[in-house]
User: Which sequence fits this backbone?
């Protein structure tokens, strides 16, 4: 089975997240470590950002800032879709707390809706999101 980085880079709608992982220097961590749960905005979600915002963050001089942002999409441990219950709080590697909301069969993470179900990896699971979480 493929690791998190391999799964993300093979998914045609998660290309931007793969670029972010590489530019932030998280490839080794997310290839060998784990288990992790990754909340990955789709390419459509990245397309909703202000023009040039994502491209600016991908520049080498912004590596530290990007790593801080990308760490807010990664949670230690493997949390499957079925385990995301209403009111649950998840602590990211970047020390941000993500709030889970469940309503009408949908699961939202800090207001971003999970698209589809678990993308399994050898060292965790990936959940695709319909929007980018705030860069704070």
Assistant:
């Amino acid at each position: 089975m493929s690791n998190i980085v391999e799964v993300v880079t093979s998914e045609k709608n998660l290309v931007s997240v793969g670029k972010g992982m590489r530019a932030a220097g998280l490839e080794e961590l997310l290839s060998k470590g784990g288990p992790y749960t990754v909340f990955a905005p789709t390419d459509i979600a990245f397309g909703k950002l202000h023009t040039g915002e994502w491209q600016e963050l991908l520049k080498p001089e912004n590596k530290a800032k990007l790593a801080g942002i990308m760490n807010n999409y990664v949670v230690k441990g493997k949390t499957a879709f079925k385990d995301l219950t209403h009111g649950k709080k998840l602590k990211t590697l970047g020390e941000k707390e993500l709030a889970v909301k469940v309503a009408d069969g949908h699961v939202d993470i800090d207001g971003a809706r999970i698209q589809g179900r678990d993308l399994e990896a050898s060292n965790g699971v990936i959940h695709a999101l319909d929007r980018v979480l705030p860069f704070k």
Q: What stands out?
A: The beta strands are 36-41, 74-76, 89-91, 97-103, 106-109, 112-121, 124-129. The first strand starts at residue 36 and ends at 41. The domain at 4-129 is CATH 2.30.180.10 (FAS1 domain). Residues 24 and 67 are 4 Å apart (CA to CA).
